[in-house]
Amino acid sequence: MMVNRALKKLQPEFPEVTVAEVDILSHPVKAWKNGIRMIPALVAGEKTLSGVYLDSSRIREFLEDCRKAAA
Which of 2, 3, 25, 71 could cysteine-pair with 40, CB 3.0–4.6 Å? Predict the structure, then answer.
């Protein structure tokens, strides 16, 4: 749940970001199609960030990269 807390703290900096949780146990096919191979994972377009421990700085960097790619 650390990723969830980090995303909530970062939300004011990235108001354009919409977060949707996917329960991989209930929706394994959807998770697989979205490129999720490890949890926790963040997916934005073609980009995926996953790892055993995702700290706020890695999540912020991921969101900034996604913002730059969208611009």
Answer: 3
Q: How many domains does the chain have?
A: 1
Q: Which residue has the tokens 């934005």?
A: 44
List residues bridging with 53 in a β-sheet.
Answer: none
Inter-residue contact 69 to 47 (CB < 8 Å): yes
For 66, other C-beta atoms within 10 Å of its C-beta total 20
The H or E element that residue 68 is part of is helix 56-70
Of the candidates 16, 48, 21, 18, the one whose C-alpha atom is nearest the C-alpha of residue 34 is 48
Alpha-carbon span 62 to 71, nearest angstrom: 14
